[in-house]
Each structure stands twice: as C-alpha cells, then as structure tokens.
Amino acid sequence: AIPISDLLLWIPLAGETTSATLGATPHDTLELLRRITVLRGTGLAVADVDYLLRGGSAAVSALAFTDTQAANAAQAISDAIAKLATPPDAPTVATIAIGVLATATSTTANVIAPLYPATATTPPSQATIAAIARGAALYTALHATEAEFAYIVANAAVFGWLDPSNLPTTATSPYAPFEALLRAVKLNHRQSARTPRLFDVLAAWQGPGGLPADPATAINGRAATSTSPALPSLATALGAASAADVVALAAAGALNATAPSLTAAAQPGTLADMATLAAITDALDLAARYALGGA
C-alpha cells in the first residue's frame, strides 16, 4: 500500500499535474498507475525522486546536497585556488573544482566532468555546485557506469532522455524524458557479457555514414565496405537469440518500427526510440519465456 501523502506526490511526479484527467478514462488511470510503478521501481523514496526530477523535497530527501555542503565546496575551491602561485586559467579552475566536487559528492572526476559547465571560466557558484551535485546524485541512483553516464550526458539532446547536467527545477515533472533515460540504461545493460551494447550501436550510428537506411541493416549490422563503415548488430545489443526474431518483432503491426533517426522529434516509432526498443525487448522476453520464435 502507498501512504496517501506519498501518493499525492507520486501523482504529479508521474506527469499528472492536475486532477482534470485523473480517472477520466480507464486508460488514463492505468497509465498513471504504470508510471507510478516505473518511478517506484527505481527503489527510491518519493522525496528522492522529487529532488532528482524537480529539485523538490530537498529538506527531506536523503540525496539532497545541502546549502551548507555547497558553501563548503565553494570555499574549498576558493582555498585551493588561493594557494596557487599565479592566477589559474579556466582549465586549471575546472580541474580544481571537479576534484573538490568529486570528493564532496562521493563520486569521481569522471562523473563530475560531464556535469561541469563546458564554458565556465570562473569558479562555480553555489547554485552551480548544487546543480552538479544533483546530477551526481542521479548518476548514483541510475547504477550506471562512468562511461555510460558520460554518453548519457553528451547525447541527451539527441535521444530525448533526461539530461543529468540540466535537471529542471520546476513544478512540472520531466516524466517522459526520465522514463526514456531509465529505459536507455536498462537496455544498455541487457548485453552484459559481450559487446556491442546499445550505446555502442547508437554511437556507431552517429558516426560518418553510420546511420542505417533501413530496419534490417540496423538490426543485423553490416560489415565494412570501401564506402561504408562497419555497424554492430542491434539484435546482439538487445540480447536477442537471433536477428530474425528482432526483424520479425520490429515489423509487427503494433510496432512497425522504422529505420533509426538521430533527430529527436522524428524518433518516436523508429529503432532509435527508447520506447520502441523497450517494446521489442519486452516481446523478446515474452517469446523466450514461452519458447516462442519472434515470428
């Protein structure tokens, strides 16, 4: 059972900001319950999810980076800079700040570096420090590797998932991009024993001449030619027993997945869409459970 006080917070976090559509149709109610299940499936308390997604509940979230911690980090950065013999350049300031924030957030420089403002030329403000710490808290919550996290931050705009380096502080929950992020990490973990993983495939598609023109090429991959680079198999990355199963499921009427797109607005329904890939893997898992073929 969910306490009423928690439910009243889960509802807006699930993207339901008013009661106007709540229960308007059975489908609306089922979708709301599905979203709450997704959020609770992170294993985080409702206050922690609120802190990560909206910057809310900071006073009660176990993940929150306090004003005192931000002030102490800012002072530590200032003290380190003051010890230098000459005024530091921007890269030196960034190196000092990243090191201090890695310690303050109990992460590493490889986690903080993607979150650190690329154009910063002066020491970060307390507000910037707090935002970076919030992104670091999301890294910990995702159970991602440092390499995964760097890819996530660098490619949030490309694939439409939540950007840990630019988390919102508004009353509106970024539920849809957060679910896309959760799906991306889960999909990337499907292939744990060998490469390629999903992010390897996506990165290959982003290279020169790498975007497949049709679903079959995306799913099967291809060998390098004199004019085209080699592409890893999406089917392998998704942990499929055979590429033929993925081809069959992707072409199924309910999905009818199309060739991948690197334009976020055009991605829904393509093989670069996290929701589409999640639907394919759900079907793969169901087929495996009942010893069915993808066709």
Task: Describe this protein's structure.
- By secondary structure, the chain is mainly alpha-helical.
- It contains 15 helices and no strands.
- Helix 5 packs across helix 6, helix 6 packs parallel to helix 8 and helix 14 packs across helix 15.
- The longest helix is centred in the middle third of the chain and has 17 residues.
- The radius of gyration is 22 Å and the shape is globular.
- The two termini are 39 Å apart.
Per-chain topology:
Layout: H1 4-13, H2 26-40, H3 46-54, H4 67-82, H5 90-104, H6 109-115, H7 126-142, H8 146-154, H9 156-159, H10 175-188, H11 198-206, H12 215-220, H13 234-237, H14 243-250, H15 274-289
Helix count equals 15
Shape descriptor? globular
Terminal CA distance: 39 Å
**Sheet with the most strands?**
none
The fraction of residues assigned to DSSP E strands is under 5%
Mean of residue pLDDT? 94
